[in-house]
Amino acid sequence: MTRRFLFLLGSSRPDGNTELLARRAAEQLPEDVEQHWISLADHPLPEFQDLRHDSDHVRPTDGNAALLLDATLAATDIVIASPLYWYSLSTHTKHYLDHWSGWLRTPGLGFKAALAGRTLWGVTALAHEELEVADPLIGSLRNSAAYMGMRFGGVLLGNGSKPGDVLRDTDALARAKTFFDQEPPLARFPYEEESPGEDRPAARLTP
User: Fold this and answer.
1) In what order do the strands lie in the sheet with 4-9?
2) Rg, the chain, Cα only
3) Distance from the Cα of residue 114 to its chain's centroid
4) Angstrom distance (rounded) from CA 6 to CA 64
5) CB 82 within 8 A of CB 135
6) Which pLDDT score, from 0 to 100, does residue 203 have?
7) 94 phi, psi to nearest 5 deg
8) In which domain, by residue range, is 61 found?
């Protein structure tokens, strides 16, 4: 099966540090791996409506919702490239994930079954030297992957505030070179960990 990487850019500005770091990592992918890049800011989704207690969701047939749904279903690997905003995911990224809730409840779509076994990755830049402040973002992606039965490749972290700062983070650039080389395990919720002292690959910041 051909690997198809979907890179979803969650920043509100183009060419930000998160995108630069994601592109550095993507440069290392083999030539036979397909890459599809979508800016969520340039393809805004409609407001999400929670219909689970009222009626069924209907599969979108046009517009950005259909574009993103089809791209998500076609991907073997989904890369969430979201800067760290208030210690979590950006608004554009969270909005996209909210739509997963609707797609999960769309009759005939089989969204959860389609994504099961595929891989979710994360890339983020933060203007903070203590990487632990990104734990809420990492947890959100890891738990989302666990709920969907997906693999989780961890989150590639870089440091940067002003545009281009991340390109001076030599540690992050070094990690980017091998970030997609790993074979990610199936994601697990924290309460599913076997023991408190166990290495938890789904929660690692980087490979």
Assistant:
1) 34-39, 4-9, 77-81, 119-126, 151-159
2) 17
3) 16
4) 15
5) no
6) 36
7) -60, -40
8) 4-203
Which pTM value belongs to this model?
A: 0.90
Average pLDDT over the chain, rounded to whole? 90
Q: How many domains does the chain have?
A: 1
Measured between alpha carbons, how far is 141 from 145 in angstroms, rounded to an integer?
Answer: 6
Got the DSSP string for 129-174?
S-GGGGHHHHHHHHHHHHHHT-EEEEEEEEE-SSTTGGGG-HHHHH
Domain harbouring 122, CATH code: 3.40.50.360
How far CA 153 is from CA of 20, 65, 141, in Å, comes to 19, 26, 10
> In Å, what is the CA distance from 146 to each residue of 77, 90, 119, 202?
15, 20, 10, 9
The position carrying tokens 């590639």 is 156
pLDDT at position 27: 98
Residue 157: its H or E element: strand 151-159
Name the DSSP letter for residue 85. Answer: B
Q: Return the closest-CA partner of residue 135 out of 152, 116, 157.
A: 157
Residue 183 burial (10 A CB sphere; 0-12, 13-18, 19+): exposed
